[in-house]
Amino acid sequence: MPMPSYNKVILGLELSFKTDAEPGRVENAKALVEERYRLLNPGGKNLSKEKVLTFVALGLADDLIMANQRLAEMEEKLDKILRKIKVPDLP
Q1: What does the alpha-carbon distance between residue 4 and residue 32 come to, in Å, rounded to a whole number?
Q2: What is the pTM of this model?
Q3: Facing residues of 14 across strands?
Q4: Helix, strand, coil % in the chain, rounded to nearest 5
């Protein structure tokens, strides 16, 4: 099954790409980038688009790092709980 193609305008930039992500995920990602951009550059101040997009990328990268860290912590806690409640094998 071929990957779907998308043509999107994001922050005035026309992008064409392929991804196996569902259309809803693509739209949610687009909306998140655009919202972060608006938060970092309210009213279209004199910051260059490249600089603001770099800040957006850094913020999203930090969110991913923190989410991965929280996931690892939760997996560790879950593993400890599972080891505590594990029933020994019966003969």
Answers
A1: 21
A2: 0.75
A3: 9
A4: 60, 15, 25
